[in-house]
Amino acid sequence: MIQVNRLIRIPILFLAAWFIQGCAHITPLGGGTKDNDPPKVIKIVPKQKEVNVVGKNIEIEFDEYIVLRDVPNQVSIIPTLRNAPEITSKGKKINITLKDQLDANTTYTIRFGEAITDLHDGNVLSGFEYCFSTGNTIDSFSVQGKVRDAFTNYPAKDTWVYLYKTMEDSIVYKEKPYYYSRCDEDGGYKISNVKPGSYKIIALNDKNKNFTYEQSEESIGFLNNAIRVNADSTEFNLVIFKEEPSRTFVKKIVQPISGKALIILSRTSISPQLTPYYSKTALGADRILNFESNDTLVVWYKNINDDTLRYILKDRDLVIDTISIISPSQKKTEKEFSSGKFKVSVEKYGHSFPAANQFSISFNHPIMIVDTSKITLISSKKKNASINLKPDKFSFGNQKLRSESDYYNTWTSNINYEFEATYDLLILPGAIKNYFDVTNDTIKHSFTTGLKENYGRLLLTLTMDSVNSSTYIFQLLDSKMKVIYEVEVLFTNNESVLIIPYLLGDTYSTRLIIDSNHDHQFTSGNYINHILPEKIIDGAVQIKILSDWDTENKWKIAR
Predict the structure, then answer these.
(1) Strand stretches in 340-398, DSSP E
(2) Rounded-to-integer distance, Cα 246 and Cα 526, Å
(3) Among 51, 148, 441, 447, which residue carries the largest CB count within 10 Å?
(4) pLDDT at site 2
(5) Is 503 helix (H, G, I), strand (E, B) or coil?
């Protein structure tokens, strides 16, 4: 027997292993072009647009292997079915088993959206639809139009349009629509293969996709009359709006610091009142109430002996809820005092310049005493002379007060600003005493006014043929769609002239609110009471304002 040297044998074994591994490695074939084509339908049973269909099974065959993706969100069947069908894919086929008894003489459409892709490359068969009829004909009528937001006038994308076979108002809360379609990016919609007849039409931004209206979370649009679908049908346009909650109640109570409670309501309160739940609890000198915003009340309190403050909340003498405010412990209050939470500070200050020539200053707590002799505003152009800041107007949150005898946290002074000047605000210690008997330390703020040449002026003539008894609110919006000027306008001989000074160079747009209920603001609609939102008209042309220039423009308002 031939003996092989062990030193030679080891390299030979390594070479053999490498050779075997190389022979076993599979290299993909090169060449050829990537498949970019979506699957093609080669056979459907029953056929596309088949009539007098009685079965409940549908089979769709393709020219290649396919996969179904996101079926619950992509595949829809119209008219809607009570029970979801069984939809499966295997190999080159899709099989659909319907579980409901189908309506007679009705056209059904199955939309696959983006659900169908080929197996290997993921090419999507987008927008494929299959329809059939249980009657003698395929319904060929359609319902289409546009949906926009009532307040912004923007297209209402991510919104659905629903058709119902009944005009009952309650149907939107409890039943799926019979027909439906989703709006595109431009707010346009189209519902095809609709049976002729009368329908209730609703637009809904159905956020939870349950086909029913959730008032607290969703916006709705409607037409008061049924639409008639026939050969003479035109476009049906809708506006969606967010309803005010039908009932006022306390959503939650927040106590950011000892002595302050925020009562957050479900909707705007017109005339809120707090009355004691027990006779020993009263809104006296140690408790004050004010608005922070239209749907938030603020209760300030101190020197409270009760563990819990209990009140009945009323709006225009109507009881809407009961509230309980837990009084903080003395230890907690003392800790907050020592940490500086009751320190007097300027929450915000503003200089309405140059149009209104007003200076306002807001504090973080209700104010009891202001010593204006310790408050100075100095202009760099007045040789350091102090400007008189005697308050001309007092307010608390969004409430205007008649005099400084009431508690307030904001005052406004009318002053004569100068262009291109620096102003320094100085509030000396002890000038302010707040509700909690705390006085301020030194407070300093500075701001600068702009050049007169930076501002332009707009001379705008509004004309409208059909002026009625409504109040008209004009708004001017800057390029960021922020309202920078608002005024109620009066039309004389169908015309109104506005002169708006001190506008920064920018591109502006206009808006007119038809204030039908004369409450001096936009009012939304109410679905159950069949009240549509107030109409807002946008100007057709944007207005370019140049610095140091007068711009004249005319807006003929079409109602």
Answers:
(1) 346-352, 358-370, 375-379, 386-387, 393-396
(2) 9
(3) 148
(4) 38
(5) strand
Q: In this structure, are residues 325 and 299 in contact, taking their beta carbons and an 8 Å threshold?
A: yes
Residue 456 φ/ψ, nearest 5 degrees = -115, 175
Residue ranges and CATH numbers for the domains of the chain are 41-133 (2.60.40.1220), 141-240 (2.60.40.10), 250-338 (2.60.40), 346-450 (2.60.40.1220), 455-557 (2.60.40.10)
Convert the pLDDT of each residue in 136-152 to its tens digit. 999 999 999 999 999 99
The SS3 assignment for 62 reads strand
The single residue listed with the structure tokens 């210690």 is 429
Token pair for residue 466? Answer: 């059909």
Rounded Cα distance, 375 and 377, in Å: 7
How many C-beta neighbours within 10 Å does residue 533 have? 20
Q: pLDDT tens digits, residue range 536-554?
A: 999 988 999 999 999 999 9
Number of residues assigned to the chain: 559
Both structure tokens of 207: 């956020």
Residues 6+ apart with CB under 8 A from 237: 145, 146, 147, 148
Q: What is the mean pLDDT of residues 194-219?
A: 92
Write the Ramachandran bin of 481: left for phi over 0, alpha for psi from -120 to 50, otherwise beta. Answer: left
